[in-house]
Every structure is written in structure tokens, then in C-alpha cells.
């Protein structure tokens, strides 16, 4: 290991060896390629397909929304290919954190680990609030309503968002039982929501009104991003965030039976399936309802009503509810693995690295994250955190693409079970795509990110750096 504030790094060999050798605290390797694909789909296909499609069609791309999804899928593919190479080469928990430790050093690894809290924990809380809304809507359909004080956070008309906190706690308990059990439940829910989406596509295709696709690319209104080709581009930027979550697969590489083969399948397979489903839904949706009428919270339910199958809207709400459940589950799962990896390196308290000898899961890490996330979901009106989650994710994506380029130079001979084709071009386009999308976010979001990272640096200076040094010293003495 090289040392120095900006140069303290672990080699790829050291990262892999530490994970393979420390069997007493290692996570169970229970996951298959199919399980990884389901994790990716569980994380990716959430409310975006049920809500975001309508907004993007009505405001930006019109019937050409399908092209926006194709463009968004291609942009994610650049990043996904980079994740696939790293996950197969470095099959350890921690995902972007571990990759950054091997390429940019401990300080940058801490920054990205802290940044991943935005992607996973805050995202889980945000999605849980959305889950609460759909759950209350379904309850209202059968005449049941929660008291207002238990239905929303302070500032949102209530005292505590009980359903949001409840789903986080329930999913945390499931994850603490073991990765295999959680994977089975996730796979079952993924199968259900994919079946509902395919049902919509099949039923909708039989009632299409092709005239609604004309003009396929509406004329620009005179404002950049509102229809025309610029609208397709703006729509791609918006729907890009519907793909966020697939990288959760990389956090599971350390719990996969054959990560060198299965991690790329999980990453790229879930991305491919998600893209196909998004494009199909966009095409059918705009062929059932005039695109200008889709700027509603439930565009797919609106399309079902348009063909006279209002009863099917209950299934659509159920699909959205299941989608949000799996998105919350996988976000909680990913965050616990990142904290587990950071704690093993001494950057967080050892508590987060403890593994249950019975379930082989990071119980303390999972329980702590679940409790704090439930608290945030229950008490904080977090709609404004959506853009903060997005910028945090894009920041991580940039570092992943950068890590691939660095490792190709620093460790060119290391075996790579999966290699990014035309790596300089692909990784470069991945970095460029993410930076452009980050540049398009509001200035306030950048300020919030700066404040969050400054808080993280203070924690690193006050605890992480010193404790990590002690852990490294102890490891050196033990090996000597």
C-alpha cells in the first residue's frame, strides 16, 4: 500500500485478497447472475416508468419520448460498461468506494463513500415517501384512510409519515435475515412488476391510435428543450435518472458465486431489459393519449382509462407500489455494503463491519442505516432532495469511468474477465455525459452538494483519517 494524504491507496490485488482471506467476517456468496439482474431491475424500474414518462412526453419530447429513452439508455451503457469491467476485476463490497480507493486514494475514496450516502440512503428515504403516497392511494380506493397526522411529515400537513418509516423498517428486517432471502423476495416482486408493465404494453398495443404519433417530433416552441430535437435531448437528460440504480449490482459483487462472470451479466442485463421496457412503455403511452395530456402524476393510469379499462388502474398502482418497494430494498442493501467496506478500512467505526455468523450479513450496519433512513422518511419532507440524489449519483459515475482509465494505465496486465471495448472512447463519453447532466442541474443543488461534502471532509479529518491509520498499523503488525 502506498501512503500519503492523497496517495494512500490499496492495490487491486490487496483489495481482492483482503476480501478473500478474511473469511471470519466475509459476507456470504449466495447470489447468482439471475439474482443480480433482479437486483438491477429492482433498483432501476421504480416510479420513473409510472410517472416520469408522462412528464417528459408532455413537456419536452412529445411522441419522440421513445428516442429520449434510447439516448438515456446509451448514456447509461457507457457507464454500465465501466462498472462491468471494475466489478468483474474487483469483486468486493463497496462498489465505487473500493474502485476509487484503488485508483485515486483514501481521501477521494472517503469523499465518494460519503457521496454514496446521497445515492443510496437519501434515495431510499425519498422512494419510501413515494411508496407511502401510493399505499395511501390504494387504501383510499377501498375506503381506508390514515389520520392526517400519521400520513405525512411535518411541513407536509402531518406529524409523521408512518407508512414511509414502516416500509423502511420492514425491508431492513428482511435484509438482516440474509441476502439469499432478500434476493428471493426481490426477484418475486420484480417478476410481478415486469408482468404488470408487459400487461400494459400488450393491452395498450391492441388499442393504439397511430395518428397520435404524428408529428412524431413536434416542432420546437422557440425554447430550447421544448420539443424538436432539443426536446429529445432535454427529455434524455430527464429520463436518464429513471435508469439510476443499476449500479447497485456492483455493490453485490462480493456476495456473488462467480462475480467475474455474473457481475457483467447483472449490470448490462438489467440495463438492457430496463431500456427495452422504458422504450416500449413510452411508445404505447404516446399512442394511447395525446402527449400534451400526459403531464399528470399517473400517466399510465390515464392511458388505461382512455381505453376503457379503469379497473386495470388498480394493477398499475400495485405495480408502482411494488416498483418502489424493490427500489427501497436495493438502496438500503447497497448503502449497508458501502458502510461495511469503509468500516473494514477504518474510515468508519468497526461496528459497521461486523457480520452476523448466522445470516452472514452486516447486521449492525444494516440496522443503523435502516433506523436512520426510517427517521428521515418519517420526519423530513424530502422532495427537494431528488436533485441532490441525482448529482451525487452522477458524481459517482464520473469517478467510475475515471477509475477504468487509470487502472488500464497503472495495472495493464491484471486479468480482466470483462473488458470495456474502445475504453478511451467509451469511458470518455461516459464522463462527458455525466458532466453535461450535472451542469444542467440548478445552482442550489451544487451548493447543497458542496455543503454535504464539506461535512464529510470534517468527519474524515476528525475521525476517519486517524482511525484508518491505526487500522493500517495494526494490519502491518499482524502480518509482520
UniProtKB/TrEMBL annotation:
It is found in: Membrane. The chain crosses the membrane at residues 33-58, 64-86, 107-131, 151-175, 187-207, 227-246, 267-289, 309-334, 363-382, 388-407, 419-439, 445-463. It comes from the Bacteria. The keyword Iron does not apply. It is a multi-pass membrane protein. This is Amino acid permease YhdG. Signal peptide: none annotated. It holds the Pfam family AA_permease_2. Keywords: Membrane, Transmembrane, Transmembrane helix, Transport. InterPro entries: AA/rel_permease1 (IPR002293). The keyword DNA repair does not apply.
Amino acid at each position: 500500500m502506498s501512503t500519503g494524504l492523497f496517495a494512500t491507496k490499496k492495490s487491486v490485488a490487496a483489495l481482492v485478497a483482503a476480501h478473500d482471506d478474511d473469511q471470519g467476517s466475509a459476507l456470504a456468496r449466495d447470489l447468482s447472475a439471475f439474482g443480480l439482474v433482479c437486483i438491477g431491475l429492482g433498483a432501476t424500474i421504480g416510479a420513473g416508468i409510472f410517472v416520469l414518462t408522462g412528464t417528459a412526453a408532455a413537456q419536452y419530447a412529445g411522441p419522440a419520448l421513445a428516442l429520449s429513452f434510447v439516448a438515456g439508455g446509451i448514456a447509461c451503457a457507457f457507464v454500465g460498461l465501466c462498472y462491468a469491467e471494475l466489478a468483474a476485476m474487483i469483486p468486493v463490497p463497496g462498489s465505487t468506494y473500493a474502485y476509487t480507493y484503488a485508483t485515486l486514494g483514501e481521501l477521494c475514496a472517503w469523499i465518494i463513500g460519503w457521496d454514496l450516502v446521497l445515492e443510496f440512503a437519501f434515495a431510499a428515504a425519498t422512494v419510501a415517501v413515494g411508496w407511502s403516497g401510493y399505499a395511501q392511494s390504494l387504501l383510499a380506493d377501498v375506503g381506508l384512510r390514515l389520520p392526517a397526522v400519521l400520513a405525512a411529515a411535518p411541513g407536509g400537513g402531518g406529524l409523521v409519515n408512518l407508512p414511509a418509516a414502516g416500509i423502511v423498517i420492514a425491508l431492513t428486517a428482511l435484509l438482516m435475515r440474509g441476502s439469499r432471502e432478500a434476493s428471493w423476495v426481490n426477484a418475486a416482486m420484480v417478476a410481478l412488476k415486469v408482468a404488470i408493465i408487459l400487461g400494459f404494453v400488450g393491452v395498450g398495443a391492441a388499442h393504439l391510435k397511430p395518428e397520435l404519433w404524428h408529428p412524431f417530433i413536434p416542432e420546437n416552441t422557440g425554447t430550447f428543450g421544448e420539443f424538436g430535437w432539443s426536446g429529445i435531448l432535454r427529455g434524455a437528460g430527464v429520463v436518464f435518472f429513471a435508469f439510476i440504480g443499476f449500479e447497485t449490482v456492483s455493490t453485490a459483487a462480493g456476495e456473488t458465486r462467480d462475480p467475474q462472470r455474473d457481475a457483467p451479466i447483472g449490470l448490462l442485463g438489467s440495463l438492457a431489459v430496463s431500456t427495452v421496457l422504458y422504450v416500449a412503455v413510452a411508445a404505447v403511452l404516446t399512442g394511447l393519449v395525446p402527449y400534451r395530456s400526459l403531464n399528470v402524476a399517473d400517466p399510465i393510469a390515464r392511458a388505461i382509462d382512455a381505453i376503457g379499462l379503469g379497473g386495470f388502474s388498480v394493477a398499475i398502482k400495485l405495480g408502482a407500489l411494488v416498483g418502489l418497494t424493490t427500489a427501497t430494498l436495493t438502496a438500503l442493501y447497497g448503502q449497508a455494503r458501502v458502510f461495511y467496506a469503509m468500516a473494514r478500512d477504518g474510515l468508519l467505526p468497526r461496528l459497521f463491519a461486523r457480520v452476523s455468523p448466522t445470516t452472514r450479513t452486516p447486521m449492525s450496519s444494516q440496522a443503523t442505516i435502516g433506523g436512520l433512513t426510517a427517521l428521515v422518511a418519517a420526519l423530513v419532507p424530502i422532495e427537494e432532495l431528488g436533485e441532490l440524489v441525482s448529482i451525487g449519483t452522477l458524481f459517482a459515475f464520473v469517478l467510475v469511468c475515471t477509475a477504468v482509465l487509470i487502472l488500464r494505465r497503472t495495472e495493464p496486465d491484471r486479468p480482466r474477465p470483462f473488458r470495456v471495448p474502445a475504453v478511451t472512447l467509451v469511458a470518455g463519453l461516459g464522463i462527458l455525459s455525466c458532466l453535461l447532466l450535472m451542469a444542467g442541474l440548478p445552482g442550489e443543488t451544487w451548493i447543497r452538494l458542496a455543503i454535504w461534502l464539506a461535512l464529510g471532509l470534517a468527519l474524515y479529518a476528525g475521525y476517519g483519517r486517524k482511525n484508518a491509520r491505526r487500522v493500517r498499523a495494526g494490519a502491518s503488525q499482524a502480518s509482520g
